[in-house]
């Protein structure tokens, strides 16, 4: 039995007239009659009483009709579901993000996905750049919002697109002697302990910070390492050291931490969206396209750190 047999049956059952049913279906009446006969032969009962004056459903036809309607409706629903999934309008995406993305692109991206693709479920995980690369490699993540540059060994299987940029700023305990400065001279941090993320979990950002300090004439002394940006700021607030963080982190607006621009100007660091070059989830392409559009239409411009 084929779906077309059900369509033919329901057309005749609706019109109770083979000629009008054939016209609706766009076929000739003789082939329609032959197909209905073939269906009845397969089922083993007559579905229509073909009297000389009019066509009527037999008791078997009456019993067959509701399930035939449901079968066609289920088939149509299956087609629609497959089409929506193929367009990336449904499904689940595992998305990794660095903590500082919550101050820039991520909130706008989440709203855009909710508005444009409400039936796509996002499983969000705050992870370091290295952890995201590992997740993209082993398939536990579909998309990552991370901080380039990535090691060359990690770029071969990934597309990495910049979707935002900002400068680094100095994070100081609020009672630090330099906290009242409008701009902090990097050389004045040479003897300070630093709080940084572990290099093996985010080499790109860590290396840019170390390179900046070396250009200012010193190598930073790392007194404490922390994975999440909020933790780094908390340790700075506790007086364990100073740090260089993305400018957007200053939106934390903590009274116990001062965020200041540095002199000379710090590196411009990127936020990027990363995904596998060979990708089978259509919803990934939709999310990446939204991130790309947001970056183009409304570039991230984090609040400038307050000055006194």
UniProtKB/TrEMBL annotation:
Keyword Transcription: yes
Family matches, as InterPro entries: LysR_HTH_N (IPR000847), LysR_subst-bd (IPR005119), WH-like_DNA-bd_sf (IPR036388), WH_DNA-bd_sf (IPR036390)
Keywords: DNA-binding, Transcription, Transcription regulation
Top-level taxon in the UniProt lineage: Bacteria
Database matches in Pfam families: HTH_1 (PF00126), LysR_substrate (PF03466)
Domain HTH lysR-type intervals: 1-58
CDD domains assigned: PBP2_LTTR_aromatics_like
Keyword Transcription applies: yes
Family classification: Belongs to the LysR transcriptional regulatory family.
PANTHER family for the chain: HCA OPERON TRANSCRIPTIONAL ACTIVATOR HCAR (PTHR30346:SF0), TRANSCRIPTIONAL DUAL REGULATOR HCAR-RELATED (PTHR30346)
Protein name, as recorded: LysR family transcriptional regulator
Phylogenetic lineage: Bacteria, Bacillati, Actinomycetota, Actinomycetes, Micromonosporales
């Amino acid at each position: 039995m084929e779906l077309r047999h059900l369509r033919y049956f329901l057309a005749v059952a609706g019109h109770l007239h083979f000629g009008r049913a054939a016209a609706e279906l766009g076929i000739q009446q003789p082939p329609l009659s032959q197909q209905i006969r073939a269906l009845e032969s397969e089922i083993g009962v007559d579905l229509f009483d073909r009297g000389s004056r009019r066509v009527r459903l037999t008791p078997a036809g009456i019993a067959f009709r509701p399930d035939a309607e449901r079968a066609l409706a289920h088939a149509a629903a299956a087609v629609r579901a497959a089409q929506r999934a193929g367009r990336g309008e449904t499904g689940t995406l595992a998305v990794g993000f660095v903590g500082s993305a919550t101050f820039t692109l991520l909130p706008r991206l989440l709203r855009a996905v909710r508005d444009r693709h409400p039936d796509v479920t996002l499983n969000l995980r705050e992870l370091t750049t290295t952890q995201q690369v590992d997740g993209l490699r082993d398939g536990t993540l579909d998309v990552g919002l991370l901080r380039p540059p990535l090691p060359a060994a990690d770029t071969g299987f990934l597309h990495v697109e910049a979707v935002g940029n900002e400068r680094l700023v100095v994070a100081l305990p609020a009672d630090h002697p330099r906290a009242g400065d409008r701009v902090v001279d990097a050389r004045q941090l040479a003897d300070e302990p630093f709080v940084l993320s572990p290099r093996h979990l985010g080499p790109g950002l860590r290396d840019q910070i170390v390179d900046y300090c070396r250009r200012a004439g010193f190598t930073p002394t790392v007194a404490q390492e922390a994975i999440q940006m909020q933790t780094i700021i908390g340790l700075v607030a506790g007086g364990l050291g100073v740090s260089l963080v993305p400018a957007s982190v200053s939106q934390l607006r903590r009274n116990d931490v001062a965020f200041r621009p540095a002199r000379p100007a710090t590196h411009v660091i990127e936020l990027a969206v990363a995904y596998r070059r060979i990708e089978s989830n259509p919803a990934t392409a939709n999310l990446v396209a939204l991130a790309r559009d947001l970056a183009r239409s409304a570039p991230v411009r984090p609040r400038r750190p307050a000055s006194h």
